[in-house]
Design a protein that fits this description.
Layout lengths: L9 E6 L13 E8 L8 E7 L6 E6 L3 H11 L3 H19 L11 H19 L11 E3 L3 H6 L6 E6 L2 H6 L6 E6 L4 E5 L2 H5 L6
Antiparallel strand pairs: 1-2, 1-8, 2-3, 3-4, 5-6, 6-7, 7-8
Helix pairs in contact: 2-3
């Protein structure tokens, strides 16, 4: 299984559980949370822990009747140690760089700041989106939420939602081939999904 299959009908979130802290001080591991999208008619959630310096993956938490299927997918996707190490190294560097972009407040998030962050984060994401079937040279679109959604989510200024549209989606008009990436700057975490609603309106973690 290729890693891009991990978001086929499912959504994943990657962090190290150190929101608001310097990356790596407390927990020398990468955490991957994965669950079925709500419209997939399946229920399941798994949290996997990847040691940074070698060792086996560790299941931290499971929920739902299809959690075993998610466990099987994760073990298959990361069965190759070289691929697993490369993925972990890339993701850790990404989270560390995102941590330097934190401390965002409404006062310092002007349109100019958003454009600057978009450019910076796009460069950071290039190393990661390729794992999920996106050409790293492709420039993402930033998705702007509606005024109503912003009013209901006052902390949304800490998050940026990017949309990647592979060429195959342009020809087939298949929106599910698109890849959405939500970056939380203050928590130094990212979420990836082909379902925009999972990143806009749902809480992925627990």
């Amino acid at each position: 299984m290729s890693i891009c299959k991990l978001i086929d009908g499912e959504t994943i979130s990657i962090d190290n559980h150190n929101a608001g802290q310097e990356i790596g001080l407390e927990d020398k591991a990468l955490h991957l949370h994965k669950r079925y999208n709500h419209k997939s008619r399946k229920g399941g959630y798994v949290e996997e822990k990847f040691p940074l310096y070698g060792g086996e993956m560790e299941i931290k938490e499971t929920k739902g009747i299809h959690a075993k299927s998610i466990e099987k997918e994760l073990k298959k996707a990361f069965s190759n140690q070289t691929i697993r190490k490369e993925f972990i190294d890339s993701m850790w560097k990404l989270l560390s760089e995102l941590a330097t972009k934190g401390n965002i407040t409404p006062e310092n998030l002007s349109e100019e700041k958003i454009e600057s962050l978009k450019k910076d984060i796009s460069e950071i994401l290039k190393r990661v989106v390729r794992y999920f079937g996106v050409d790293p040279e492709q420039k993402p679109e930033i998705v702007k939420p509606s005024a109503d959604y912003l009013a209901k989510n006052p902390n949304l200024f800490t998050e940026l939602l990017f949309q990647y549209i592979p060429e195959s989606a342009l020809y087939t008009r298949d929106v599910y081939r698109r890849v959405y990436v939500k970056v939380n700057l203050n928590k130094a975490s990212i979420e990836l999904s082909q379902a925009r609603y999972m990143l806009e309106n749902q809480q992925l973690l627990k």
